[in-house]
């Protein structure tokens, strides 16, 4: 009998690239996210955006704010559904750690939407905002490493 191979989905990773530039990141957590069917389908197609999104704590629960899901012609979403607050699913101990970090003045930053497996997950991290001179140092280090790589390739 012939084996049946599962069809691999063309899932696109949705990342928040500015997070690593704007924040000094600490502990990372992977949490679930509550979505409806249309939102799930759109995220698997790569139609989401985490830029400017953050995680807030309300009533002992985590919520993802300012994350955008863009509709397509085949999968419509109303204007209120594109930027609505979405509940995050985490263990009680993880939530308590995040609440403690938030009380110390840190920010909970979403890093990446993981769309590969059966469930859609969100990778979040505790971050402390960088100052402008920290950002300039990061740009300088990045440019120096690019220049050294170019010189290595030339020789």
Describe this structure in words.
The protein is 34% helix and 31% strand. It is of the alpha+beta class and 155 residues long. The strands form two sheets. It has a seven-stranded antiparallel beta sheet with strand order 1-8-9-2-7-5-4. A two-stranded antiparallel ribbon has the order 3-6. The longest helix is centred in the last third of the chain and has 23 residues. It starts with 13 loop residues before the first strand and ends with a helix.
Which labels suit this protein?
155 residues, alpha+beta, 7-stranded antiparallel sheet, 31% strand
Strand and helix layout:
Elements: E1 14-15, H1 17-22, E2 23-33, H2 37-44, E3 48-49, E4 54-58, E5 61-65, E6 68-69, H3 79-82, E7 86-89, H4 92-103, E8 107-114, E9 121-129, H5 132-154
Backbone shape:
globular
Going by CATH, the architecture would be Beta Barrel
Elements, N to C (H/E): EHEHEEEEHEHEEH
Structural class: alpha+beta
- Biggest sheet strand order reads 1-8-9-2-7-5-4
Residues in helices, as a percent range: 25-40%
At the fourth CATH level, what is the homologous superfamily? Small protein B
Overall tally of structural domains: 1
Distance between the termini: 56 Å
pLDDT < 50 stretches: none
User: What is the third-level CATH name, the topology?
Assistant: Small Protein B, Chain: A
Number of helices: 5
CATH class: Mainly Beta
